[in-house]
């Protein structure tokens, strides 16, 4: 089973991750991981922190001569901003005179974290709950992304809406079975808000500018799509092995995500069954579906169609024009505290969601086909794929 853990505070020395369970001989270079880290840092509406940081991974173990060796891969992303926080986040403790934070921001982890962990300074909540942690996740999950590419599985994303402005539906993922997600995601990467149409890109940027001017923030929705996923990942055998449940958990775990749909999700609830379910058809003697409203998953198992996830991110909780809260020190109503932050992070969130999707798919893939080396895994995969039809025909011919 593959696993990863992350550690690190937003303004601490750095972010650390340990990734274990991947087979040996998987080709991977730091530059490949850095490329994904860069994608996570981009997007119109980010705060000043992204100008300070230029996230790069330092690989400590697990990779030799650009290939995995089967041992745990450990990585560090150093925080440039640490220089400015050495005293405030000191490990040893000192007489450094700093201001304790007692005013929680509504919608953030500030208050709940302080109640739960019995903190006397909201700074402790802020540091670990910050979305900065997702840099380490992206580094870890990029190993999974690289692994999946070996088997022709590609994951990409695009932003659908920001602040209620929906981009034109240039792609209907539920009708098209042939989705070139690499090309689509590259197009999204060229847009500062990761949308696929220029007209709405401008409208969205205007809306972000006006939110920023008002000291406000915005959320949005995005799609993540994985193509090349073989039939048979995940299982209906138990609640915790269902692929859709697994993906929902992974996406919902990303900071500020408040909604996740698989396939056409909530829309499906308003329709007749005959309008919803994807007909099973034959194309060149291969089993396929006439549509993909199920989002590539039936009965908790991948069905060979593209896996489609849609998610909603709430607006960032730090407001420069703050709403009301309580000062825990004085126990009276005040305006929430301002803290340097992003105004919009939906484009970054879509990249993080791609990463988490890669992780879940790699986990389920290795659960089914896993070997100790990439070669052994490939043999297992090929053996299964080559026999799908002959087995079906043999079993049902009796
Ligand atoms: C982030 C780093 C943070 C924030 C943002 C995401 O840096 P700082 O707090 O120093 O500005 O920009 O985090 C939040 C939105 C949050 O609420 O914590 C990053 O690296 O993605």
Descriptive keywords:
globular; single chain; five-stranded antiparallel beta sheet; Chorismate synthase, AroC fold; alpha+beta; 11 helices; binds ligand EPS; 398 residues; four-stranded antiparallel beta sheet
Give an overview of the whole structure.
This protein is α+β, with helices and mostly antiparallel strands. The chain has a single domain, classed as Chorismate synthase AroC (Chorismate synthase, AroC fold). Helix content is 34%, strand content 20%. It contains 11 helices and 17 strands. It has helices at residues 30-41, 49-52, 110-117, 123-129, 134-149, 181-190, 198-213, 243-252, 273-276, 346-369, 374-396, and strands at 3-7, 14-20, 58-61, 63-64, 67-68, 73-78, 154-162, 165-166, 220-227, 257-262, 280-283, 286-289, 297-298, 301-302, 307-313, 324-327, 332-335. The strands form 6 sheets. The protein has a 5-stranded antiparallel beta sheet with strand order 8-7-9-15-10. A 4-stranded antiparallel beta sheet has the order 1-2-6-3, with helices on one face. Strand 4 (63-64) and strand 5 (67-68) form a beta hairpin. Helix 5 crosses helix 10. The radius of gyration is 23 Å and the shape is globular. The mean pLDDT is 96. Bound molecules: ligand EPS. Ligand EPS is lined by residues 10, 47, 49, 81, 130-132, 135, 316, 318, 340-342, 345.
Question: TL;DR?
Answer:
This protein is α+β, with helices and mostly antiparallel strands and 398 residues long. The chain has helices at 30-41, 49-52, 110-117, 123-129, 134-149, 181-190, 198-213, 243-252, 273-276, 346-369, 374-396; strands at residues 3-7, 14-20, 58-61, 63-64, 67-68, 73-78, 154-162, 165-166, 220-227, 257-262, 280-283, 286-289, 297-298, 301-302, 307-313, 324-327, 332-335.
């Amino acid at each position: 089973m593959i696993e990863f853990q992350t550690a690190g505070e937003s303004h601490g020395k750095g972010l650390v991750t340990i990734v274990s369970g991947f087979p040996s001989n998987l080709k991977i270079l730091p530059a490949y991981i850095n490329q994904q880290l860069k994608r996570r840092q981009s997007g119109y509406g980010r705060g000043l922190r992204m100008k300070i940081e230029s996230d790069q991974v330092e690989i400590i173990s697990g990779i030799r001569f650009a290939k995995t060796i089967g041992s745990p891969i450990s990585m560090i992303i150093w925080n440039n901003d640490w220089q400015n926080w050495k005293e405030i986040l000191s490990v040893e403790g000192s007489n450094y005179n700093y201001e304790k934070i007692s005013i929680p921001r509504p919608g953030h982890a500030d208050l709940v974290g302080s109640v739960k962990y019995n903190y006397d300074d909201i700074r402790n909540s802020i540091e670990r709950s910050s979305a900065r942690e997702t840099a380490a996740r992206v580094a870890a999950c990029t190993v999974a992304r690289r692994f999946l590419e070996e088997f022709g599985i590609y994951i990409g994303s695009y932003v659908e809406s920001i602040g209620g402005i929906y981009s034109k539906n240039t792609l209907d993922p539920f009708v098209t079975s042939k989705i070139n997600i690499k090309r689509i995601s590259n197009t999204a990467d060229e847009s500062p808000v990761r949308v696929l149409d220029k007209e709405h890109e401008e409208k969205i940027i205007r809306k972000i500018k006006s939110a920023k001017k008002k000291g406000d923030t915005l959320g949005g929705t995005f799609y993540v799509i994985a193509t090349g996923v073989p039939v048979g990942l995940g299982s209906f055998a138990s609640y915790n092995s269902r692929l859709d449940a697994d993906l929902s958990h992974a996406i919902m775990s990303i900071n500020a995500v408040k909604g996740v749909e698989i396939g056409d999700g909530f829309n499906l609830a308003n329709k007749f069954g005959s309008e919803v379910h994807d007909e099973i058809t034959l194309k060149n003697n291969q089993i396929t579906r006439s549509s993909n409203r199920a989002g590539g998953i039936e009965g908790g198992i991948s069905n060979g169609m593209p896996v489609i996830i849609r998610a909603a991110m709430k607006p960032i909780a730090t407001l420069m024009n703050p709403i009301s809260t309580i000062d825990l020190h004085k126990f009276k109503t005040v305006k929430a505290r301002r803290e340097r932050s992003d105004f919009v992070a939906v484009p970054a969130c879509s990249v993080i969601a791609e990463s988490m999707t890669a992780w879940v798919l790699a986990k389920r893939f290795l659960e089914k086909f896993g070997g100790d080396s990439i070669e052994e895994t490939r043999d297992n995969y090929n053996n299964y794929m080559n026999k799908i039809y002959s087995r079906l025909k043999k079993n049902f011919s009796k």
